Amino acid sequence: MGDLTQASLIVVGRQDSVVGYGDGMNLLGRYPGASLAVIDGAGHALRHEALELVGALVRQWFEPAEAAG
Q1: Is 3 within the bounds of a domain?
Q2: Distance (Å, rounded) from C-alpha 65 to C-alpha 37?
Q3: 27: in domain
Q4: What is the reported pTM?
Q5: Which of 34, 39, 51, 57 has the fewest CB atoms inside 10 Å of its own CB, making it the most exposed?
Q6: Is the pLDDT of residue 66 over 70?
Q7: Mind telling me which InterPro entries this protein's record contains (predicted)?
């Protein structure tokens, strides 16, 4: 599988006991266009544990694309 060069957003929970947040950090080498957010106080269920913060990160990540049209 090739590396993804397009813009990407990786969001991980610092207290993720399933895969660990380090795995998200390791993905940065494979996805050079990626942004990484590590949410402290959240685990593997980010959408349930930090819904508002994840939503804000996604909205902020989309802003440049929306501005470009």
Answers
A1: no
A2: 18
A3: yes
A4: 0.81
A5: 51
A6: no
A7: AB_hydrolase_fold
| pLDDT surpasses 70 at 65 | no
Q: What is the token pair recorded at 56?
A: 């804000």
The mean pLDDT value for 1-21 works out to: 86
Q: How many residues does the chain have?
A: 69
Cβ contact 32:5 at 8 Å: yes
Lowest mean pLDDT among 6-10, 33-37, 62-66: 62-66
49 assigned to some structural domain: yes
CA dihedral sign, ordered 28, 58, 56, 61: positive
Provide the 8-state DSSP code for 37.
E
Domains in the chain, number: 1
Query: What's the helix, strand, coil split of the chain in %, to 5?
Result: 40, 15, 40
Asked if the structure places residue 1 within a domain, the reply is no
Segments forming the whole domain that contains residue 19: 8-68
